[in-house]
Amino acid sequence: MDILKTFFVIGILFFALIQVGNTGSLIRAENSSEIEKWVEKWVKSWNTYDLNQVDEMFLQDDRLTYFSSEKEGAILGIDAVREHHKGFGFVAGGKDQPNKLWIEDLHTVEFDSSVVVTGIWYFQRPDGSIQRGPVTIVYFQQDDRYRIAHMNFSKYNDANSKEN
User: Which fold has domain 2-153?
Assistant: First the structure.
């Protein structure tokens, strides 16, 4: 009889672990969808050069770190990141501009209060030339929303760069 009780307890524990695993998967799927919306919002801000979105999406203090594909060294803090975007022509409220940015091959990895997003960014200029490279975005959950705590852009400098 003790063997039956042992198997019964093991069976209940196994079932409970499966249910916890399933719940975790559902939470991950919901967060992944939320993160994809935040990534889409970031892409939209680049395609409209909307400086207001920098303050909307990034941490608002000196913990923010950013590596640009266009500038050597770390860009530290929200003030420096805002100025970096101004240097690209971002303005409050955005503007019409001919460049187009998009990201492919998105991959997300979730942690307790942060999410790491990786992908390949593409930037097409009006002449049809396309730059591309890997991007890493680290989102940190703060006040029930995600904010970008770190971004890292690199640029491929090889024959795989596309020219239209």
Answer: Nuclear Transport Factor 2; Chain: A, (3.10.450)
Residue-range domain boundaries for the chain: 2-153
> DSSP 3-state assignment of 75?
strand
Per-residue model confidence as pLDDT tens digits over 30-75: 567 888 999 999 999 999 999 999 999 999 999 999 999 999 999 9
Q: Is residue 5 pLDDT above 70, yes or no? A: no
Rounded Cα–Cα distance for residues 156 and 29 (Å)? 31
Distances (CA, A) of 75 to 65, 69, 126: 6, 11, 27
Q: Count CB atoms within 10 A of the CB of residue 21.
A: 9
Distance CA 29, CA 35 (A): 10
* Contact of 45 with 95, CB cutoff 8 Å: no
Under DSSP, the state recorded for 58 is B
Dmax of the chain from CA atoms? 79
